[in-house]
Amino acid sequence: MGPHVRAQDHDLDYYIVQARGNSPLLKDYQNQLLSGGVDSQLTRAAYLPQVNGISNNSYAPLIGGWGYDNAITNGGQLSAQVQATKTFVSRNNLATQLRSLSLNNKTIGNTAAIAVKDLRKTVTAQYITAYGDMVAVNYNKETLALLQKEEILLKGLTQANIYRQSDYLTFYVTLQQQQLILRQSEIQLRNDFAMLNYLCGIVDTSVKELPDPQLKLSAFPEVYNSVFYQQYTIDSLKNINQHSLINFSYKPKLSAFADAGYISSYPFSLLKNFGTSFGVSVTVPIYDGHQRQMKFKKVDLAERTRTGYRDFFLRQYDQQIAQLTQQLHATESLINEIGEQMKYSNTLIDVNAKLLETGNVRITDLVLAINTYLNARNLLNQNYISRLQIINQINYWEAL
C-alpha cells in the first residue's frame, strides 16, 4: 500500500494510554485534587492557635506648644508583643466544613472520570475511522491487482482479435477508475491517521499498521452505579451539607486571645512596661434581616434543579441505550446479508474470469460483476466500521 508503513504495530490501548498521558485536562484535574487536599489542611490549620508578632511604634512631639494632644498620644508609644488567638468551633462544625471540601473533591474526581471516558470514546472513534480507511486501502489494492491481472489477459485476447478494442478500453477505464479510488483511499487514510495522532498528542507523520480493535459490548450495571449518575448523588449530598453550613454559621462564636510583651508611652517608664493580657470574645447572632431563610431557599432551588436534571438524564439514558442497541442489531443483520451477497458476487467474478480466458464472456458483464462485488465489499466495510462505532458509543455509558 502506498502510504502504509509496516512499522511497529500500535493497538487501540496504545493510543488511549498515549492520549491519557498527554492530556493537559487530566493533569489539571489531578492537580485540582491535590489542591483540594491542601484546602482541607488549611481549614484544619485555621482553627489551631494563631501566633503573631506585633510591633507599633510612634512619637508625637510638641514643638512650641504645637502638636497632638498629649493626653491622647502620651507623647508616643513603643510596643512589641507576641499575640496568640484561637477560634473555637464544635467538632460537628469542623466536620461539616471538611465534608464540604471532600464533596468538592469528589465532584472533581467524578468529572475527571467522565473526562477519561470522553477521551477514550473520542480516541476509539478516530481509531475505528482510521482502521476502516486502512481496510479500504487494503481491499482496493487487492482489487486493483486482480484487475491488472485480468487486464494483461484481456490485452492479449484483444491483440488476438478475440475481443474488440472497445471491449478492452471499457475494461481499462474500470481499471483506471480503481487506481483513482485507491489513491483517494490512501489520502483519506493519511488524513484520518494524522487526526488520531493529533488527538493523542503524538508527533508523528507516518502511518502505522492498526490491528482490528475487536470491540465487545461491556456488561451494563445499574445506571445508578455509573459515573454519570454519581454527580447527581454528590450534588444532593452537597445541598444537604450546605444546609448544615448555614445553620452552623448562625451559632454563637467564641474566640480567645492572649498576648505578652512590651507596651509603653514613649519616652516614659521604659523599663516597667513589660506585661501580658488575655480575654475572650463571644458573638451571638440576633437579627440579620431573615438572610438565613433566604439562603435555605437558594439551596432548596438548587436541589429542585438537580432533581430535574437527574430525572431528564435517566429518561435520556434509557432512550439512548435502546436506540443504540436497536441500531447495533440492525447493522449486524445487514452485515450477514451483505456477506451472503458477496459470496455470489465473488463466484460470478470467478466464472466470468474463466470464461474470459476462452473469450466466451461479454466484457460489460465482467465489468458489471466486478462493480457489484466492489460495491458489496465497500458496503460490508462501512457497516463493519459502523458496528464498531455503535459499540463504542454503547460502551461509553458503562459504569467504569
Per CATH, the architecture of the largest domain is: Up-down Bundle
Oligomer: single chain
| Beginning-to-end CA distance, first to last residue | 38 Å
- The parts where pLDDT drops under 50 for at least 5 residues are 1-8
Provide the CATH top-level class of the largest domain: Mainly Alpha
Q: Report the structural category.
A: alpha+beta
Order of helices and strands: HHEEHEHHHEEHH
Strand content: 5-15%
CATH superfamily of the largest domain: Outer membrane efflux proteins (OEP)
Largest sheet data: 5 strands, antiparallel
Number of domains: 2
Average per-residue pLDDT, rounded, comes to 88
Q: Please state the CA-atom Rg, rounded to the nearest Å.
A: 39 Å
> What is the 3D form?
elongated
CATH topology-level fold name of the largest domain: Outer membrane efflux proteins (OEP)
Our count of helices gives: 8
**Approximate helicity band:** 55-70%
Number of distinct beta strands: 5
Give a description of the structure.
- This protein is α+β, with helices and mostly antiparallel strands and 400 residues long.
- The chain folds into 2 domains: 305 residues, Outer membrane efflux proteins (OEP); 72 residues, Outer membrane efflux proteins (OEP) (Single Sheet), CATH 2.20.200.
- The chain is 67% helix and 11% strand.
- It has 8 helices and 5 strands.
- Strands 1, 2, 3, 4 and 5 form a 5-stranded antiparallel beta sheet that branches.
- Helix 1 crosses helix 4 and helix 4 packs antiparallel against helix 5.
- It starts with 11 loop residues before the first helix and ends in a 5-residue tail after the last helix.
- 14% of the residues are buried.
